[in-house]
Structure formats: structure tokens, C-alpha cells
Write a structure and sequence with these properties.
Layout (H helix, E strand, L loop, with lengths): L6 H4 L8 H10 L10 H15 L3 E7 L2 E8 L8 E7 L18 E2 L4 E3 L7 H16 L8 E6 L10 H4 L3 H6 L1 E6 L8 E8 L1 E10 L3 E2 L8 H25 L10 E9 L5 E2 L2 E10 L5 H14 L4 E8 L13 H12 L3 E7 L5 H11 L4 E5 L13 H4 L3 E3 L1 H4 L2 H7 L11
Length: 424
């Protein structure tokens, strides 16, 4: 940890620092950390930004304490479908004892690296959106399409009280979205990864019942024996998918089904054979997999383990919508052509986890036949830091260059129109 007297810990402004970097660090210092995020301060921060940019700010409370904040730059032809730049305001918890710097001080080292929770996921993207629009407005630019920036809560805990509720409301329909961007992943190479779909998360809890008894005896048909068969079936499948990913070089993590045993419960005493046990599995299924056939396989695994084995879903997402990346699609063509003109290398993949984008994709047909959604993080040559684990928490960071040079993609992408009446 930094000494308490270090001015960088106290959040003092550096007069030599680029204002966009200062803004980024200010945003990082707002503790929107789950499970008790300070959303009120975040909303006030965004309201101030809206005032600075002379943009109207709409607040939609989808449930008590959960506000969607929308900053809107009206286009010269507002009847056209709009552009939505989405980001979430919350961040995952931290294990402070494993950090070298205060995770909410936004410490910047001598090389310009900024260490903070949310530096990659995803406050850097929010600031890039804001700074791109700030620069374009300062240049006196105007565009036919209306551009909305949405800042949503609770994405890190599933978005159930955030985007999932928002897309069902009339305020979302009024946005008239035609093209949208959301979070992606940093890429350590010189390539930008674009995600055109994502896996379906299934959280399954398997319960087994068996004969109880004293721990000194060989009890027949125990819950533990059945649970062993269940776990073996699930983990053998996991190993097959893991080896497939390793052996088939063209595959990415988004192309295979990931499966992990995440919770295991049972028993009341060392000397008592339990009558029941349970295991929880986190499964992420690519949109190319037959979900009906996969559930039939889960059912078969449980049936083969013996009588008294059941399962229940704690999450079962089944929408497998994917965004077109065909050059014939006017939205994709506008996006990809602009990136090529900027010498930006793109790699299209399925997102390996889940984001709020799944909720927009699920309702896209009710918005417009041509509604378009991509996950994209304008962050290359930057190692990706998973924010879920203590060892990864040591280094969640972003370079200050992202807030300065990172504005350029927005500067170029926003002005470019899809050349098709289908995108109107």
C-alpha cells in the first residue's frame, strides 16, 4: 500500500497530466464495488460530465437504487436509428491484502500505468466514449445519427436489476438503437478483438440422496458414491473440451464449452455418512451448441449416477443470437472498413463469458431487423487481467495512453455511416 501521505493516494491533481487521464482516475476512485456499490456518487459524476458536454442526461430507475444514466448527443436526423455506447459502472470485489497499491486510489506509476479496480473492466471504456464525444463536439462536428452513452448498474452480478430490466422498458425502445458497442477484453497483441456473440451461462445444482449411516461401516448406495459418479461425468466432459481447445489450434475459449465445479456441500459430522449432498457447476455454452441435446446429456449423467439424483437450474440462458460480421451487412461494413482505414487489425470471436450485451441481442428483433450489437474493447498491446482472483487482482491496470490515444477510434468510428437504406 502507498503511504497515507503520498499525494497520489490523496487524489491530488497533477497539473501536467492530460485532463482525460485525470478524469479517468477520478472515476476509478468512486467505489462502485460490489456488493455495496456507491452508485449515487457515480450518477452525480456522470451528471457533471453531461453538464460539461452540454448533453441532456436521462436517469431511469429500473428498480429501487438501480439507475440507468443516459447521455444523449442528438443527431441532425434523429429519426434514423441511433448509436448506443454502453458501459457498466460497477466493479467486482477486491482482496486488498493482495494489492501493491490501494485499489481505489488510481495510483499511476512513472511509466503511466494506472492501478485500480475497474481500470480495464470497464471504466477505461466509459472514459474513452466520453472523451471521443468531447473532442468531436469541440471540433464542431455534427452527425446524422443520435449517439447515446448508457451507464448501467449491476452488470458484474448478472445485470438482473440493470440492463435486463431496462431493455423491457419504453425508455429503451425510445432510444431507437441500430448499432451498439459494449465491453470486450484487452488483447496483449497488436490486434483488437471484436466479439459478435457470447456463451449461454448455465448454473446447475445437482442434488443426490443416498443411505445414511455410521462412519465406521460400509454403507451401500451412499450419496457420496452417487456424487462421485456425477462429478466424474461432468469433469470428464470438461477434460474433453479442454483437450479439444488445446489440439484444434483454430479454436478460442469462446468456441468450446467450459465447465467448472464451483461448490460442493454435504455432511453434518465426521462420523456420519450423509443422506444427501449437492454440487454446483458453472457451465458456459457457445451459441453453436445444440442446447436441447446438451441438457439431455446432463440428464443422462444424472440418471446414470443412480436413483435420487436430480438437478435444478439457478441460471439458464438460452438465447443464442449472434451479430452478423458479413461484409454485406451495412453496419459491419461501416465498422470494419473504418478500422481497416486506421490500420487496426480485427479478430472476431465468441465472448467466453457473459455481458449485458446478451439482453440487447435477445430483444434486437423487437427493436429492428437491423439492430446491431458488438462487444469491443479499444485496448490492444495490453495484457488482460481477470479481476476475479487475488493473484490477478495484483495488477488490474490500464495505461494512461488509452485515455489519450484511445480516443481516436471513437473519433473515427462515430462519424462513419452504413451505406444502406436498411440501416435507416
Amino acid at each position: 500500500m502507498l503511504p497515507e501521505k503520498d499525494p497520489r493516494k490523496q487524489g491530488e491533481k497533477d497539473p501536467k497530466e492530460d485532463p482525460s487521464v485525470t478524469l479517468f482516475r477520478e472515476y476509478l476512485r468512486i467505489k462502485t464495488v460490489q456488493p455495496e456499490p456507491d452508485y449515487d456518487t457515480a450518477v452525480k459524476f456522470l451528471e457533471r460530465i453531461a453538464s460539461e458536454l452540454d448533453l441532456p442526461c436521462q436517469k431511469v430507475e429500473v428498480c429501487p437504487g438501480r439507475v440507468i444514466t443516459i447521455l444523449t448527443w442528438k443527431g441532425t436526423k434523429p429519426q434514423l436509428r441511433s448509436i448506443l455506447l454502453n458501459s457498466h459502472t460497477d466493479v467486482v470485489p477486491v482482496f486488498e491484502e493482495f494489492w501493491h497499491h490501494d485499489p481505489f486510489a488510481a495510483f499511476k506509476d512513472s511509466e503511466g500505468n494506472i492501478f485500480a479496480r475497474g481500470a480495464q473492466d470497464m471504466k477505461c471504456v466509459s472514459i474513452q466514449y466520453i472523451e471521443a464525444i468531447r473532442r468531436l463536439k469541440a471540433e464542431g462536428r455534427r452527425f446524422p445519427r443520435t449517439i447515446h452513452m448508457s451507464f448501467v448498474p449491476d452488470e458484474e452480478i448478472g445485470g438482473y436489476k440493470g440492463m435486463q430490466m431496462f431493455v423491457k422498458r419504453p425508455e429503451f425502445a425510445t432510444l431507437n438503437v441500430g448499432f451498439a458497442l459494449d465491453e470486450g477484453l484487452a488483447n496483449p497483441t497488436d490486434t483488437f478483438t471484436v466479439f459478435y456473440g457470447e456463451k449461454c451461462p448455465w448454473w446447475i445444482k445437482v442434488k443426490v440422496e443416498g443411505n445414511p449411516g455410521h462412519g465406521s461401516r460400509f454403507i451401500e448406495n451412499t450419496a457420496a458414491e452417487k456424487m462421485h459418479r456425477v462429478i466424474t461425468s461432468f469433469l470428464e466432459f470438461r477434460e474433453r473440451e479442454k483437450q479439444r481447445l488445446k489440439s484444434e489450434k483454430h479454436l478460442t475459449l469462446g468456441d468450446v464449452t467450459s465447465l467448472n465445479l464451483t461448490m460442493l456441500n454435504g455432511g453434518i459430522s465426521f462420523n456420519v455418512v450423509p443422506s444427501e449432498m449437492s454440487a454446483a457447476f458453472d457451465i458456459r455454452i457457445p451459441p453453436t451448441v445444440d442446447l436441447k441435446a446438451f441438457e439431455e446429456q446432463v440428464t443422462a449423467w444424472c440418471r446414470a449416477a443412480g436413483e435420487g439424483v436430480t438437478y435444478e437450474f439457478h441460471q439458464k440462458y438460452t438465447d443464442q443470437s449472434m451479430t452478423s460480421t458479413e461484409e454485406s451487412d451495412p453496419w459491419w461494413k461501416a465498422f470494419s472498413t473504418t478500422c481497416r482505414n486506421m490500420n487496426m487489425k480485427l479478430k472476431c470471436e465468441i465472448f467466453p463469458a457473459a455481458t449485458d450485451s446478451r439482453y440487447i441481442r435477445a430483444v434486437s428483433t423487437s427493436i429492428s431487423l437491423f439492430a446491431y450489437f458488438l462487444n469491443y474493447l479499444p485496448c490492444r498491446c495490453t495484457p488482460y487481467f481477470s479481476s476475479c482472483f487475488p493473484e490477478a487482482s495484483l495488477s488490474e491496470k490500464a495505461h494512461s495512453f488509452l485515455c489519450i490515444a484511445g480516443r481516436s477510434p471513437g473519433d473515427w468510428l462515430l462519424p462513419h455511416e452504413p451505406h444502406s437504406c436498411a440501416a435507416a
